[in-house]
Design brief:
Blueprint (H helix, E strand, L loop, with lengths): L7 E3 L2 E3 L3 E3 L14 H11 L5 E8 L16 H17 L4 E6 L27 E2 L13 E2 L2 H20 L4 E6 L4 H6 L14 H18 L6 E6 L10 H13 L5 E4 L17 H11 L3 E4 L5 H9 L5 E4 L1 H5 L3 H9 L30
C-alpha cells in the first residue's frame, strides 16, 4: 500500500491521503473579495484528488495585504464572496478546504508579481505598512510604522474576527501565516524585531505576539477543526531566525493545542542565501517532527510522486505540500496514484477518462451506458 495515499487525521478532520495543496497567492481579488478567477481556480484544484486544499494567504486587514489584489477576510462582504465560492466547490467536491490567514506587515503595499512586485509608492496607490520595528524590508524602501500596544491589539483582534468569519462560512481548518517574511515572522526574527518591550529581545519575547495570535484564534475557531501554523524554519541569514528557534516555537505551539506545522523557509531578508535543490527544506520538517511530534507538512521543490512517497514512508513528514507542481499539473494526485499503484477519488463526471490500463485508479468508479 502506498504511504502517500494512506488516510490521515488532523484533529477531527479526516484526510483521504497525505497530499496537501499548499496556499498560492493569485492576486486576483477585488477589494479583498473572491472573484470568478477564484471560483475557476479553486474549483479546478478541488477536483484534483488531493486530501486538503489550503486557500491562499488571506489578509485580516486591508493594510495587511501583500498587494491591492489580495484575498481578504476583514469584512462580511469578503466572507460572503468567499462563501459563495465555497458553495460552488462543495456542490461537486468533498475535499476539505482550509484558509491561510495572514498579515504582510512591512512586505505589504507591493505591486503584483507580473508588474514587478516592488513596493508601491504612496503617490501611486501604496499605503503605510506596519511591523514590529521601523526597519524596511529592502534597502531604499520607506520604513514601516512600528506597532504600538494598541496596534498589536487591533491586529490580534483582526485575526480573531477573520477566524470567526472563516468558521461562519464553514471552512474546515485554518493555517496562520508566520513564514516568508510576513508580519508574524517579522516578530520572530531578530533581523526584523529590535523592540525593547515584552515583544522583542529574547526568544521568549519574540515568540509572544505570534503565540498570542494563535491562542486567540484557537479560542474562537470550532473545537475539533484544525488550526495550524506555517513557519519559515530559517531566514538563511547569519544571526537571523533559525531551525533551533523554530523547534522551540513549534514546541510552544504544540503545548497550546496546535494541530499541525507547515515547514517552509526564507522570505524575511533580501540577504538570504538559499541553495535550491529538490526537497531542500525536508531536513527542517524532519527535525521539527522528531522534536515535537506535531503533524508536519513538508513543502518545497517536491515534484515527483516517488519523492513524495519516500517522504511519508520514511517518516520525514506526515503530509506533503504541493504548490507550483499542482498549478503546472492540476491532476498531480491522479498521476501520482497511477505511478504508485494506488487509488484516488475522482468526480464521476471524469470516471470515463480512467486509462484502459489502470481500471482501478479511480475509487468507486463505475460507468454504464446503452
Amino acid at each position: 500500500m502506498s504511504a502517500l495515499f494512506s488516510p490521515y487525521r488532523l484533529g477531527d478532520l479526516a484526510l483521504a491521503n497525505r497530499i496537501v495543496i499548499a496556499p498560492m497567492c493569485q492576486y486576483s481579488a477585488e477589494d479583498g473579495n473572491a472573484t470568478d478567477w477564484h471560483r475557476i481556480h479553486l474549483g479546478n484544484l478541488a477536483l484534483s484528488g488531493a486530501a486538503l486544499l489550503i486557500i491562499e494567504a488571506t489578509a485580516v486587514t486591508p493594510e495587511g495585504r501583500i498587494s491591492p489584489a489580495d484575498l481578504g477576510l476583514w469584512s462580511d462582504a469578503n466572507a460572503a464572496a468567499l462563501g459563495s465560492t465555497l458553495d460552488s466547490l462543495r456542490r461537486y467536491s468533498s475535499m476539505p478546504v482550509a484558509v491561510q490567514l495572514a498579515h504582510a506587515g512591512r512586505k505589504a503595499s507591493s505591486h503584483l508579481p507580473w508588474e514587478g512586485g516592488q513596493l508601491i509608492p504612496l503617490d501611486a496607490g501604496g499605503w503605510h505598512t506596519v511591523a514590529p520595528s521601523a526597519l524596511p524590508h529592502g534597502d531604499g524602501e520607506r520604513a514601516p510604522l512600528a506597532l504600538d500596544s494598541a496596534g498589536l491589539v487591533r491586529i490580534r483582534e483582526a485575526f480573531v474576527a477573520a477566524a470567526r468569519r472563516a468558521a461562519g462560512i464553514g471552512l474546515d481548518a485554518l493555517e496562520l501565516h508566520a513564514a516568508h517574511g510576513y508580519l508574524l515572522h517579522q516578530f520572530l526574527s531578530p533581523l526584523s524585531n529590535i523592540r525593547s518591550d515584552a515583544y522583542g529581545g529574547s526568544l521568549e519575547n519574540r515568540l509572544r505576539f505570534p503565540l498570542e495570535v494563535f491562542d486567540a484564534v484557537r479560542a474562537v475557531f470550532p473545537a475539533g477543526k484544525p488550526v495550524g501554523m506555517r513557519i519559515s524554519a530559517t531566514d538563511w541569514v547569519d544571526g537571523g531566525w533559525d531551525l533551533e528557534q523554530s523547534v522551540v516555537f513549534s514546541q510552544a505551539l504544540k503545548a497550546r493545542g496546535c494541530d499541525f506545522i507547515h515547514v517552509s523557509s526564507g522570505g524575511l531578508s533580501p540577504r538570504q542565501q538559499i541553495t535550491l535543490a529538490p526537497g531542500y527544506q525536508l531536513p527542517f520538517a524532519e527535525r521539527i517532527r522528531a522534536a515535537t511530534g506535531l503533524p508536519t507538512v513538508a513543502v518545497g521543490l517536491i515534484t515527483e510522486a516517488e519523492q513524495a512517497e519516500s517522504i511519508v514512508a520514511s517518516g520525514q513528514a506526515d503530509l506533503v505540500g504541493i504548490a507550483r507542481a499542482m498549478l503546472y499539473d492540476p491532476r498531480w494526485p491522479w498521476h501520482a496514484a497511477a505511478r504508485l499503484g494506488a487509488r484516488v477519488h475522482a468526480a464521476p463526471q471524469y470516471w470515463r477518462c480512467q486509462p484502459r490500463g489502470l481500471p482501478d485508479l479511480f475509487a468507486d468508479a463505475k460507468v454504464g451506458q446503452r
